[in-house]
Amino acid sequence: MKIIIVNGPNLNLLGNRENNIYGDQSFTEFFKRLEMKFSDHEIFYFQSNIEGEIIDKIQEVGFSYNGIILNAAAYTHTSVGIADAVRAITTPVVEVHISNTFSREDFRHKSYISPHAKGIIVGFGLQSYELAIQSFLEEKL
Fold it and tell me: What is the similarity comment for this entry (predicted)?
């Protein structure tokens, strides 16, 4: 199985920013653990602070991968372009958020991506990514 995690803006700062919300582990450290745990599968990682690069990556992998795990971060609540990219592809997308966006500011309650996603996982910290991977693997059984 071939799965990619696509992270949006500021997620490159995990482990250094707002530890009370996002925890103190970097995504690089966490991703190494994911690779070991799911070593029978190809898992890739892409992060960008730039909306167009995220759209480009979704389009690049959106017809050939088995799954996309997308944490568009703040773009979740603003980007019609990313939502349109998710809608345009055939690879299923699971929308993921580290924090419970519904317990935060009102603007974080709206997602442009959710209507086009296979599913949504929010509020389980970095474990949200692992749950998303498991959702793809369970589907193939």
Answer: Belongs to the type-II 3-dehydroquinase family.
